[in-house]
Amino acid sequence: MRTMWLLACAAWLSGGFACGGPAAAAEAVPCQVRVILFVPADVTPPAEYQPRIDDIVRSSEAFFTRELKRWGHEQVVMPFRRSADGHVEVTLLRGKLAKAKYKTIPLRTEVNEILREQGKLDSGWQVWWILVYFGEPPAKFHAPLGGFGNLMGGWGICNFSTAPGELDPEADLVSEFPETIGLKRMLYELGSGLRLRPAGPLRLDSGENTLMGPSHYTYGRVVGKPERTTLCEAEAALLASHPAFRGKADPPRKAVETKARELTCTVDRAAKAFVVRGAAVSAVPARYAFVGEESDARREDHWTKTYVGQVAADGRFEVVVSQPAESGGKLRVWFVLEDGTQTGDGIFHGREYGIAKPYTYSGGEWQFP
User: Mean pLDDT across the stretch 87-98?
Assistant: First the structure.
């Protein structure tokens, strides 16, 4: 999964922030999650896909609503695009090639070309949830991936399963049938399209696995079978700040110079915690400050503990890293701005380009230079 994530980051880096262009000039419409069912040329589309997609979206909305409310985000809208009859709007796209020819990037490129030809990329960034149907189980699309790019906006590609069974919107993602159809992985790739980053659980004794954390299988091998799937506080703040969850347009925009002044990282020895303080300075006000704990003890990126603090009207913020690993490493500090932009340096997007603050661990003590 880490390789897939790096590929998604590379897609973003092809242009840093967008710099206007035809899409910026067109009339912007609210950013939404738009569902595509992609079927290769040699596969017959499933006859009854609409009820299954309705159920998938209903369960997704229940998960997001429940978890956002848990963290105090109640003034949000569900971003999934629906038709006038209340059903999820699904665009069926037939591929030009046989299924054996499709890997992730060629598939995404083909979808991107079709959307551009249809003029669907000319009214601001959207989020495209691309469900790939390779036939009745056990046939499966094995190369899911998600990310963000200047031309297409957000995208998440995942397998669409027609395995028999029913989804209960109140069932956790660790439940048997959601696991059967891979619902957590589907939402993980959608989360990547919504600009979430890998974010693991803070405590391994809580029984909670995070949406952008390791797969349930990997979590089970390391910790034991998870009891529930959650959004950590940082994931919830990122989603609540995204234009799609605020019912707003997401127009392509230029880079916004953003700096962190008076940035300090100190060790609270009594609490065994780090305290990160500073002031965010940007032409577009910052809403939240985030700190990713990239410790040397991490198993891999999906176990990265991520913390968040609100940014005050004067730009000041404080983030407490409450569960640091007993190892060296570095912290990454970045912000989400009022328009939904995530940046640490005002040039590139996301945690990978946040401000790095290295630290050491020796003799039971952490130390920042």
Answer: 97
Please tell me the predicted confidence (pLDDT) of residue 22.
40
CB-count exposure of residue 263 (10 Å: 0-12, 13-18, 19+):
middle
Average model confidence (pLDDT) across the chain: 92
**For residue 25, is it within any domain?**
yes
Bridge partner residues of 194 (DSSP): none
Residue 350 domain flag? yes
3-class DSSP state of 214: coil
* Closest by Cα among 30, 26, 21, 243 to 123: 26
Last residue of a domain, one of 200, 225, 246: 246
Residues 327 and 212 in one domain: no
Domain assignment of residue 23, yes or no: yes
Name the strand (E) or helix (H) holding 330.
Answer: strand 329-337
Which pLDDT score, from 0 to 100, does residue 137 have?
Answer: 97
CB 269 within 8 A of CB 363: no
Q: Please write the tens of the pLDDT for every residue from 221-254.
A: 999 999 999 999 999 999 999 999 999 999 988 8
Backbone phi, then psi, for 55, in 5-degree steps? -65, -40
Q: What contacts 118, CB < 8 A, 6 or more positions away?
A: none
Residues 37 and 169 both lie in one domain: yes
Q: Final residue of a domain: which of 192, 217, 246?
A: 246
Cis-peptide, bond into residue 369, ω within 30° of zero = no
Tell me how many domains the chain contains: 2
* 29 occurs within a structural domain: yes
Maximum Cα–Cα distance for the chain, whole Å? 64
- State the residue range of the domain holding 171: 18-246
Q: φ and ψ at 112, to 5 degrees?
A: -60, -45
Identify the three-state secondary structure at position 342: strand
H helices of 14-86, where?
22-25, 49-70
CATH of the domain at 96: 3.40.390
Same domain, 197 and 342: no
Amino acid at 239: L
Burial of 27 (0-12, 13-18, 19+ CB in 10 A): exposed
Here the contacts of 308-313 (C-beta below 8 Å, separation 24 or greater) are 308/233, 308/234, 308/237, 309/276, 311/280, 311/285, 311/286, 311/287, 311/335, 313/285
